[in-house]
Structures are given as C-alpha cells and as structure tokens.
Write a structure and sequence with these properties.
- By secondary structure, the protein is of the alpha/beta class.
- The chain has 2 domains: about 210 residues, Periplasmic binding protein-like II (D-Maltodextrin-Binding Protein, domain 2, 3-Layer(aba) Sandwich); about 250 residues, D-Maltodextrin-Binding Protein, domain 2 (3-Layer(aba) Sandwich), CATH 3.40.190.
- Helix 1 runs antiparallel to helix 15, helix 2 packs antiparallel against helix 16 and helix 10 crosses helix 11.
- About 45% of the residues are buried.
C-alpha cells in the first residue's frame, strides 16, 4: 500500500538584497587647440632728404586653448547582484526574477516536489536557501515513504496528467520510463538558456554528468547526486604487520588493498578464517558484497561482468549478451566469495551491509557513498578512524597484447531531478533544480543529509569546496572518490530499466543461494530480457542502448573492443 502523502512547506521570508547598477560613463575627450597668427611689417616711403631705416618687426602671438584634464577618478564597475552566489545559482535566481517581472509567473506561485522520505532533510535545506533569494515562489514537498512509492505516483501522474507535481526526484534508472511515458519534460532548451554549469572546472564529473541526464541525446534531468560505489575497507586490519606476515606466508604476495577480484577472494578467506570478533560480539567476515534478493544483487554481478569485458546487449540487434563467458566468470567469483560473507548477505535487505560494516563485522565491502558518511559520523560506528576508500577491484585482461586490469565503478540508481510536462511553471521548476544543484548551494544540500552525494568536480579540486566535503566524508574518501566517478558506468537507463535489473537480481540471488545453477540463470535472464525488449519495441530500445553505450567509461569500452563486441 502506498504511504500517505505528507506535504511540508517552507514559508517565504522577506529578503531585500542590494540591487545597484551603475552605467559606465563616457570618458571625456581631450582637445588641444593651437592658434597662431603674424602681424605684418609696415614700410614707410623713402624721402630724398632723410634716410629712414625701417625695422621690420615680426611678432608672433600664440594662444593655446587646453581642455580640462581627464578625471583622475574612474567610474565604478556595475555592482553584481547576489555576489555571494555562484554563477550557476545567480543565473537561476535572476531567471526566476525575470519571469516574475514579466508576468509569466505570479508572485506567490507554489512548486510541489514529489520525493522519497530519505531525501527530506536535503530538500528542506534547498528550500531554505531558495526562500532566502526567491521568497516570491513557495515550494512544498510531497513526501513518499519508499522509492517504489515515488515511481508508482510518478507513473500514475503520466496517465492522469493532473499537474499535481512540478518536480519529481527519481532514480536515473527510471528516466527512460518517465520520458517514454510523456512525464519528463525535455530540458535541453533550458540547459542552453540558463547554463547549469555542465562545462568547466566545476561541472559534474564525466561520464556521470552526461549519462544520468541524457536520454537519446537530449537533456531530461539535472543531476543532484552520485551513487558511485567504492571499495570500503578496514585500514587497521590490512595494515597490521602481524597479518601482513601471515598473509604473505600463506598466499605468496603482500597483503594490501586488492587490485583484482581474485585478490579479494584471498583476503576474504584469510580474515574469515582468523575468526575475529567485533565489539558487539559478532563474527568478523572477510567480505560483504551485495547478493541480496530484493534490489541490489545485480550490482556486484554487473560490475564483475563488465570488467571482464561483458556487454549487456548487442549494439546492432539489441539481443542480450549476458549468457556468455563473462557472465559465467562473474558467477564464479561470487560463488567463491560466498563462504567468506555473512549468510545475511543472501537474505537480508541492503541496509544490513551498512549495519555490519559500521559495527566492525566486515573487512572488505562496497556500497554507496552514504556508507562512508555513516562510518565516520554515526554514533554507533566503531570504524570512524579506520575506514579506507579505494577503487573497486578489477579483472585482468589482455588489451592490445598487454595484461591490463580493467576497473569500473557501479553507479546504481543515482537521484536526478525531472520537471513534469504537466507543471504550470516548468521553467521555474527547472530553475529550482539548477539552484539546488549549483556548486555552492549543491554542496550545502549534499552535506545536510544522507542520500544525495558529491558529483561536481570543484568539490574535490577547489580548496574552498574540498575542505567542506572532507568534513562530511573524510579526507581518504574525498581523495579517491573523484577517480571512482571518472570510471563509473550508467545503470539501465533505458525504458524498462528497473525490469531488466530486477530479473538479473532475482537470478544472481538464486545462484548464490544455491537454488539455481549459473547456466540456467544466464539463459533465463537472457530470455526475460528479450521479452522486455520486444514489449517496448526493439528499435526504440536499441536507439536508447546505442546512445547509452557511448557514455560508458573508456576502460569498459576498451574491454568490449578486446572481446570483439565493438568494432
């Protein structure tokens, strides 16, 4: 049953920022005039008796007329409105002011945002900051309990077209569905008109900035999040001299942050067999990666599959390509890891991974950035000072005749903001999203809650922003996360994306649980995927997949070429 809608509103507060605009005056011209003239000479006639010597006198009188000297003072530059705001946020605010002044949008208009409860704190922060600069436009939240509730409400709006919501925050996985259903407005024109800062030193980090906002080459969303996975690990255990010595004696190489999934298996085996105990008395497992039944199992499998050179769909026919050697390799890795992961990994919800890690009951794991937020800030965390961050482990392939470790980072779901095609004020809805995702405002929003995370380049590179990011995530995370985003890959951002992912999740969980063998799982999922593709139209799905495939990171595309999947 859908949870009851909860509507919260932020009352606008009076705010009168200085507005000064001085027109540059024309500089004074300098005129120098020289006027000269001569007085002629007089000659008296010569007389017989007297000789007169006549003096010829030439007198030159010069008169100089000089204009006033130029002013030593210069006209001041125009005073910038809202100088404290970034250019992206300022353009959004001024854009709304202009729409109000021109009568396109009335003062007192209200925007309504449909969203999930987990983002409430962060959206309330965005509304608080918005109200400071745009008190003329109210914003209300329509809060749903779970992610599926948001999806159901949104797709219902696509049918009823009531205009009940102006903005909807969605998983990027749903973007294809929202566009094809006619709900998500094409924002390309607004991108071009207002420039949300998608180029330059503070742009969203690519390829993420493109693949979560583009569908078939058009902009339909603004990024408000990043959900890129990193390897999270216990620095104290991997750096312990005693464990290092024992590990090397057993496996023949140094204990360190793993570069490959094979190394993950060795480390997981080593620490599980030590039979360590957490502070709350639980067993310390060597690894915990997602294989759970309801949602996340596809994430781990897909990461290994892609790094091994697998490609989900044929780029010419849209035929599923997961029933392949790369698919079998991914299952092989997961089955080898199974003995060194807690049994709950197979049956519990995704949040159990968080619980076990922050209580010191897993050594290697991978999840969304919010895991690190919790690890360093939760009162219950016992790993505040010992949490490390690294790139996801990879798969060693032959690329161009050279052994190469192919690494990639999952970006499952990822929150984005769309504007409803049925909104009364779509342009203002867009401008609110531009404002809340701007470099300055966006960082404040990200740091005010849990589920929305860092996505702009300058938050990692500009000292004034980076210092703030470190307070929320820790220095080790901030130093490594930028590289993780650069090798991140998109989720199933095509129509039916959640369906494709769900079929794969069910199969992965069944294989790890021991109720289905890998061969059956792969052939079953391939058949299911083909049915989904046929239902939505092969040509349309292929068009979307071709566009999406171009946005995968270079390591993955090089692996596809090495395997012959791409020419």
């Amino acid at each position: 049953m859908l949870s009851e809608e909860k509507v919260s509103s932020e009352k606008s507060k009076k705010f009168d920022p200085a507005r000064r605009q001085v027109i540059i005056a024309l500089g004074s011209a300098i005129v120098a005039l020289g006027v000269g003239y001569a007085i002629g000479y007089l000659t008296k006639p010569v007389e017989k008796v007297t000789t007169t010597i006549t003096k010829t006198i030439t007198q030159t009188v010069t008169q100089t007329v000089t204009a006033a000297p130029p002013s030593l003072t210069t006209t001041p530059a125009p005073t910038l409105e809202y100088p404290e705001l970034s250019d992206v946020a300022r353009r959004a605010v001024l854009g709304v002011k202009k729409l109000i002044a021109s009568g396109v949008v009335p003062k007192g208009a209200t925007l309504r945002i449909l969203h999930v409860a987990g983002s409430k704190d962060q959206l309330e922060k965005a509304i608080e900051l918005w109200s400071k600069y745009v008190p003329e436009i109210n914003v209300e939240l329509v809060t749903m309990g779970t992610e599926p509730d948001v999806y159901t409400k949104a797709m219902s709006e696509a049918v009823t077209k009531t205009g009940a919501y102006d903005i909807i925050t969605i998983f990027s996985t749903w973007l294809g569905d929202m566009v094809e259903a006619g709900l998500a407005k094409d924002l390309t024109e607004y991108f071009n008109k207002y420039d949300p800062g998608y180029t330059g030193p503070c742009a969203p980090i690519e390829p993420l900035g493109s693949y979560v906002t583009l569908y078939k080459g058009r902009r339909y969303a603004l990024d408000i999040d990043s959900d890129v996975f990193t390897l999270t690990y216990r620095k104290d255990l991997l750096n312990d001299p005693k464990y290092k010595e024992e590990f090397k004696a057993m496996y023949g190489y140094d204990l360190k942050v793993p570069d490959t999934w094979e190394e993950v298996i060795n480390i997981a085996e080593f620490f599980t067999n030590l039979k360590l105990t957490s502070p709350r008395g639980g067993k310390v497992w060597g690894a915990y990666f997602y294989v759970e039944p309801a949602f996340a199992a596809y994430i781990t499998w897909t990461n290994i599959f892609l790094e091994a050179g697998g490609i989900p769909f044929d780029l010419e026919t849209m035929d599923p390509k997961i029933d392949s050697p790369e698919g079998r390799y991914a299952f092989n890795i997961l089955l080898k890891l199974k003995p060194y992961m807690p049994p709950e990994a197979i049956s519990a919800a995704w949040a159990d991974l968080y619980d076990k890690y922050i209580h010191g009951e897993s050594v290697l794991t991978a999840a969304w950035p919010s895991l690190t937020k919790m690890a360093i800030s939760s009162p219950d965390s016992v790993v505040k000072e010992v949490t490390g961050t690294a790139l996801m482990p990879g798969v060693k392939l032959e690329i161009g005749g050279n052994p190469t470790i192919i690494r990639a980072s999952p970006n499952p779901v990822n929150w984005v903001g769309i504007v409803s095609n049925y909104s009364k004020y779509p342009e203002v809805g867009y401008l609110f999203l531009q404002f809340m995702s701007a470099p300055d405002i966006g960082l404040e929003v990200v740091l005010s809650g849990v589920i929305l995370d860092l996505f702009r380049m300058c938050w990692f590179t500009d000292p004034k922003y980076k210092a703030k990011a470190v307070t929320g995530y820790g220095e080790d995370f901030v130093d490594h996360y930028l590289d993780a985003i650069k090798i991140s890959y998109p989720d199933f951002i095509i129509r039916g994306g959640p369906e494709y992912a769900s079929k794969l999740t069910t199969a992965v969980n069944a294989v790890v649980a021991g109720t289905m063998d890998p061969e059956t799982a792969l052939s079953t999922v391939a058949a299911d995927w083909d049915s989904i593709t046929k239902r939505y139209g092969r040509d349309s799905q292929l068009e979307a997949w071709k566009a999406l495939a171009q946005l995968f990171p270079e390591p993955i595309k090089s692996a596809w070429k090495a395997k012959g999947y791409v020419k």
